Amino acid sequence: MTVDEAIAIAETVLDGEGLNDVQELIFRQCWEGRCSYEEISQLSQYNDEYIKALAAKLWKQLSEAFDEKVKKNNLRSVFKRYLRRHQVTLHRTQVIGVNLSGANLSGARISFANLSESDSSTDLQGATISDYNTVSDGIIKPENAHNQGILSSTKERIYHWNDLRFRCEEEVKIAEALDRTNTLFFPNSKARLTTPAGRQNQEPDFLIFHQGKWGILEIWHPDTEKDETRDRLFASHGISIIHYCDANRCREEPDRVVQEFLDILTQG
What we know:
This protein has a four-stranded mixed sheet. It contains ten helices and 13 strands. The protein is α+β, with helices and mostly antiparallel strands. The protein has two domains: 3-83, no CATH class; 161-267, VSR Endonuclease (Endonuclease, Chain A), CATH 3.40.960.10. The longest helix is centred in the first third of the chain and has 19 residues, at 48-66. Helix content is 38%, strand content 19%. The chain starts with a helix and ends with a helix.
């Protein structure tokens, strides 16, 4: 089993809650046998006490999910036992095969499951619904889905951080950076606006309040376009500071991006 496969299983048993960057760093290093928190801290911007505290929280969450004690030096054995116990099939770092025999899936909802890449050889005989979860939301539709009610689901990955949901890794990075500044912010908060086409929902990446002013921070990806019409609508309601930042910068230097935006908001 590779470390990527192990992380996929970890996120599965944690009800689809993805590991944040620091948790993933801790997990990867311990999986590879580098279990010194001091050494791990040198690979991040955090001190060893913070790494140790975050690791303890992660081991506790995994212990509760696996129903056995998880420690930094027994990860591999715990995950091997889990695979044997639940007869999980791995494919491209996603959990795609679980034994589901005898389960009545009619009308049942399965959260954070993605079986879209499974083939007809996947064994759906022998476990209960609670035996598996993976990354994307979906609903079992036995009457419509192909081959014994295989899950119909979206392929968009959802990233989780502090009980919030994000569409990309860059959003998580910005959220973490905003949190470090103790700033009030609303991620992916839908607003209801009157547009030229009528009343519609609009969803800025981050609505931020700082020193008495509201602003919007958008993460710009190469395959997206700026919505100037939407921006004018927000401006007409008093939110005139709308800043677009390249996704690569948001991922590589989120703290600087956030500080630049707060400076713009302060001066605006």
